[in-house]
Amino acid sequence: MTNVVVIGSQWGDEGKGKIVDWLSERADIVVRFQGGHNAGHTLVIDGTSYKLSLLPSGVVRPGKMAVIGNGVVIDPHALCAEIDKLEKQGVTITPDNLRIADNATLILSLHRELDGIREDAAASTNGGVKIGTTRRGIGPAYEDKVGRRAIRVMDLADLETLSAKVERLLTHHNALRRGLGETEISHDAIMQELTSVADRVLPFRDTVWLMLDRERRAGSRILFEGAQGSLLDIDHGTYPFVTSSNTVAGQAAAGSGMGPGSLGYILGITKAYTTRVGEGPFPTELTDEIGQFLGERGREFGTVTGRKRRCGWFDAALVRQSVATNGITGIALTKLDVLDGLDELKICVGYTLDGEEIDHLPASQGQQARVVPRYITLEGWKESTVGARKWADLPAQAIKYVRQVEELIGAPVALLSTSPERDDTILVTDPFED
Ligand code: GDP
Ligand code: IMO
Ligand code: MG
């Protein structure tokens, strides 16, 4: 018996929410450890769809504890709105099933505003680089965390020190805003913003590292829910077209306060093709009718922003890289059904860069833009795999595709998903028992 870390092995939206929901039946605690409400995780249970951004996907199962760890950046207003939305869907959320790390960083309205200002004026303020962020204030909030001037959850409980912290934060932000030609923000406005949510947020706060240590010793099963994907990681991703946190599995330890030795099985959620939202390099992108087919069949629209996701062939070189940077034990291969009916399927096995064959994506932005994918071609299948619940239900060509993926990425398939529905999942190896 072990703990399980779920992370995305591509550019996000691999189906982490569905798999975390499925696995959470076997877990006692589900922990988010990075990112914020830039994430959009979709769960479909008996035809009802739940969209979660900040709350761990385990929150919809009665009797499970959901935890927001210290590595997450929390917009308290977004948190309250999400709790209200889920309660309307019949999910009860109280301190009995949700805990928030008292040392987690808060996202304020000024972060959200700054995110938008930078994106709108990318040409003049950001060296011409538009990232295509979710505009949720994620980057600016992490900047303040690393700059040691952030407001954290526990600060809401101590108004006297809060006032001094807000002062310090505004000294930085107002200087920045003056430079950008924006109006300054008053101390009172931020104090008002924070005090208005304190009573709602504080009951959930906990010393999360201590609670997880106690639970681990008592034998509880802990499931870590990553957000975004490994190619959006601030260090290992396609920088600067990345998010502002480490999204790789190692962050599950730092972002929750549990030692890396207790993390256990690393499950990389992997889409059977590739998608990306926002700007940045995408070697296997398809701008033709096949890309359109994948987008339509896979319903590839962003959960958070509604933007159309860019679609392309499966890139085994990228996922092989994620297997290494995360220490992936096995993968959950999702959305295989979306490939049904295609005559042939291509898989990228490496790249050509300036006439030379390479087998991984280089770190340089210029080189990333220049790589040309090298493909192998497989025969497709005509049968439907939608809703398949056992290996034997899969057409021979689909099995061949899955085996080829395993071989190329160097990791086995532990779970296979064949529709958005919770139970349309084939279990090969139980990550909790591996
Ligand atoms: P996440 O961010 O990784 O949790 O993924 P999203 O929820 O943003 O996007 C994945 C989308 O694919 C969601 O709409 C899911 O309901 C859906 N989905 C998940 N697994 C499957 C699958 O195996 N087949 C199909 N067709 N859809 C799936
Ligand atoms: P889930 O958890 C896909 C992308 C944005 C943008 C970049 C930076 O649902 O897989 P940010 O707002 O984080 O500063 O934006 O990262 N991005 C995601 N793409 N899935 C996500 O989350 C994402 N979260 C952020 O589109 O390109
Ligand atoms: Mg998503």
From TrEMBL:
The keyword Ligase applies. One of its GO terms (cellular component) is cytoplasm. It catalyses: IMP + L-aspartate + GTP = N(6)-(1,2-dicarboxyethyl)-AMP + GDP + phosphate + 2 H(+). Binds 1 Mg(2+) ion per subunit. Its cofactor is Mg(2+). IMP binds at residues 13-16, 38-41, 134, 148, 228, 243, 307. GTP binds at residues 12-18, 40-42, 309, 335-337, 417-419. Mg(2+) binds at residues 13, 40. Pfam families: Adenylsucc_synt. Substrate binds at residues 303-309. Pathway: Purine metabolism; AMP biosynthesis via de novo pathway; AMP from IMP: step 1/2. It is found in: Cytoplasm. The active site is at 13 (proton acceptor), 41 (proton donor), 145. GO terms for molecular function: adenylosuccinate synthase activity; GTP binding; magnesium ion binding. Keywords: Cytoplasm, GTP-binding, Ligase, Magnesium, Metal-binding, Nucleotide-binding, Purine biosynthesis. GO terms for biological process: 'de novo' AMP biosynthetic process; IMP metabolic process. Its main location: cytoplasm. NCBIfam families: PRK01117.1 (NF002223), purA (TIGR00184). Homodimer. Plays an important role in the de novo pathway of purine nucleotide biosynthesis. Catalyzes the first committed step in the biosynthesis of AMP from IMP. Belongs to the adenylosuccinate synthetase family. This is Adenylosuccinate synthetase.
